[in-house]
Amino acid sequence: MKTSPKAYELATIVINDGAGYPGRCELARKIRRTANNPTYQRIFAADWLQAATRGAQIYERQFGSPNASVFSAADILGAALELADYYAVHTDEIDRLKYA
Hints:
Layout: H1 5-16, H2 21-33, H3 38-63, H4 73-98
Helix pairs in contact: 1-3, 1-4, 2-4, 3-4
């Protein structure tokens, strides 16, 4: 799925936020461990959406104007998809380097 430039920007903002990095990496590892269970997949999808929503709130607090949303719901959903894809690859690479 091709995401919008705003969704990609939001995902980049969340990725570059160092405060939530360990939690997002652990979430990606949990997804890998429970890959065949659809119940967990729905829970983890909500977690990625929550991370994207938090990133949008932080961005709007710093750079947005009052009472105006910079990101649409589609942008936030697209960012959640980008985050899930990014951290799946990122944690796989880190774990291969760590345990090589």
